[in-house]
Amino acid sequence: LGAVFVQSTAVVAELSPVGKKSLYLAFFDSIIDVSFVVMPPVVGWLLVFGEKIPFVLCVLLMVASASLISIVSALFVH
């Protein structure tokens, strides 16, 4: 889990404009902090529908974010 944060931070730092790098990194860190508060109740609610549903949602979100990062990096990284 720790390696994901390091790699994600590196991607944000690489893709952000030079003058706004600290703003983008602060926004990224705040999203991570909010997710630590929001996700446990969401996962608890999803467990009502089945034990596999939170894991399926996690896989779908990871595939979506990887696709989005690939598209953004292809468009903006030279």
Would you mind describing this structure in some detail?
The protein is mainly alpha-helical and 78 residues long. It has one domain. The protein is 82% helix and 0% strand. The chain is built from three helices and no strands. The model has no long low-confidence stretch (mean pLDDT 86). The chain crosses the membrane at residues 23-47, 53-77. It comes from candidate division TA06 bacterium DG_26.
What composes the largest sheet? none
Broad shape: globular
- Low-confidence runs of at least 5 consecutive residues: none
Number of domains: 1
Number of strands: 0
Query: Structural class, please?
Result: mainly alpha
Could you spell the SSE succession in H and E letters? Answer: HHH
Secondary structure: helix percent: over 70%
Beta fraction: under 5%
Rounded to an integer, what's the Rg over CA atoms? 15 Å
Rounded mean pLDDT score = 86
**Measured distance between first and last alpha carbons:** 29 Å
Number of helices: 3
The gist of it:
The chain is an all-alpha fold and 78 residues long. The chain has helices at residues 2-15, 21-46, 53-76.
Secondary structure elements and pairings:
Elements: H1 2-15, H2 21-46, H3 53-76
Keywords: Membrane, Transmembrane, Transmembrane helix
InterPro entries: MFS_trans_sf
Protein name: Major facilitator superfamily (MFS) profile domain-containing protein
